[in-house]
Amino acid sequence: MSEQSDILPTRQSMGGITDQLTRIPLRFPADRRWVIAMSVASALLLLLMVSVVELFTRGVGIWGINIPVNWAFAIHNYVWWLGIGHAGTLISALLLLTGSEWRNSLNRFAETMTLFAVVCAGIYPILHLGRPWYVYWMFPYPATMGVWPQFRSPLEWDIWAVLTYLTVSLAFWYTGLIPDLAAARDRATRRGWQIFFGVTALGWRGSARHWQRWQQTYRLTAGLAVPLVVSVHSEVSLLFAAGQIPGWHSTIFPPYFVLGAAFSGFAVVSIIAVSLRSWFGLKNLVTDDHLDLLGMVLLATGLMTGYGYVFEVFDALYSGDAHEIQTLADRFAGAYAWTYWGAVVFNFIPLQALWLRNVRRSGWMLLLISASVVVGMWLERYMILVTSLYRDFLVSSWSHFTPSFWDWSTYFGTIGLFLVPFLIAIRLVPMISIFESKELLHEEKEEQQHG
Amino acid sequence: MAKGLYGALAEFRTPDDLLAATRKAREAGYRSLDAFTPFPVEGLDRILRFPRPTISFVGLGGAIAGASTALAMQFFTNYDYPLNVGGRPIYPISAFAVVTFELTILFSALAMLVGMLWQNGLPRLSYPVFNGERLHRASKDRFFLCVGADDARFEAGETLAFLSGTGALSVELVPE
């Protein structure tokens, strides 16, 4: 019996876990706090709606974008949100395949986070279109104009990547959810819940035959989801790298983006894990050991992202390209140097505290460090967008970017767009995988018995 | 064969008890067996002699369909409206790779989900085995073995007695 295998306290019973987790949707325990959180989230969502109406009425000119910085907040926040989403898939799918069963307490809410983060990301390019009602031009349909979308452009790849990612994440999430919906159905006493869970569980009865096919589906979908994450964020980085702008046109972009995405996403997973476990008293399932492991993953992905920073500098210097080096100098000391140094400080300085075991195991410390990482990664995306664009090749086309009120309101609004469905999901579905927790508990007890 | 019955259901406390009982039932000659468990129990499918699931082939089919659709779509649109972008090739496989990869995964994942539900006969909200009084524990903490009434050796009283003898916590007949 190794220490690693006992991540769940073995004093609890399978029945206890089932009751504890199905009770959260069935008899919601924290009404007041939920209402407070929901009102903040709804206010933010309302802000998004107002901003979007304003945008559709007056056009993208209400934002601070102009030539040459025509890709600021919309694409910057798109990349940021999408990156956050990726950690959900990585935790869930990658750790399933590697047999790291500590993921069993984290995968459900991490996947839920993915879904809504991808939605937030997905609306941004559409808002940025200027004429968003023409978004269907992205799809190949026999148009009377006789033209087709340009499949040789990264901008066209984007919509396929994001929609595929959203759909596959949803399929994976739902596949894993079916047995838990059945567990909730069997515990439900009120008619409304019985119907809701009865229908969504699709009549799952836990038959051995069904489990066998289910297991194969789940594992294979996980196997597809891992390369999918890598491909989606690599594709996002190609939106930049395929252009000629100095600071973007670099082959290190795909891995640099994927690692940064995982880094920011694991930070958000940590924030949600710490919040949920204190909110619903789930310390028996999301243990200090889980936080410890999350802290280590955060530290590791953070250091890999730091490696990306180093090589971005090396890349620019080694290229010998005057414009690349100029952009590098602009990042270090230009008008937007605060975004570069802000990213470095917020991303990597508090992170170093995670070398200490006590810090990793403390919910509050992990929460604060993760919040710092989220801010840092936001600044990094800002930096990549703006510092490359505001001064490119010709001095005549140099200019500045200042975010307007509507830039900020749309951004804060998307936080509402993320939180509102997430808070609703907390009330509707078990936020920790019930059957996978039981499976892990059984394995731990088994191991204890047989030594 | 028994009229009006779906089968006999026996309840066990642990997966090991279930595995042992299932083995005994196979040895006693019962063939129409199924188990109902809160999570996938390792080794059960071998004892029950289930054939290997074919979801992987469904997924492969989906992947091939996705890749062909994506390639056909991209080749056709560029053939139908060739656009000269700085003299770059009209049919660059490298530029087509991203969308092809995404659609391969999309079609494959959806095919597997649909295939899994299809082969499992889901959604089917009502099923005779739900008539079992205690089956609701199968989604909580108990492990059930079911001998179908269509089994050649099924004989209500005898089968119940046999199941009790395997160490079951409770046994019951499930009406159809």
Compact overview of the structure:
By secondary structure, chain A is mainly α.
Fold and architecture overview:
The complex is a heterodimer of chains A (about 450) and B (about 180). Chain A is mainly alpha-helical. Chain A has helices at about 15-25, 30-60, 75-95, 105-130, 155-185, 190-200, 210-240, 255-280, 290-320, 320-335, 335-350, 355-360, 365-390, 405-430, 435-450. Chain A is built from 15 helices and no strands. Chain B is an alpha+beta fold and about 180 residues long. Helix content of chain B is about 45%, strand content about 15%. In chain B, strands 2-3-1-4 form a 4-stranded antiparallel beta sheet, covered by helices on one side. The longest helix of chain B has 27 residues, at about 95-120. Classes of the chains: A mainly alpha (about 450), B alpha+beta (about 180). Chains A and B meet through helix 1, helix 5, helix 7 and helix 15 of A and strand 2, helix 3 and helix 4 of B.
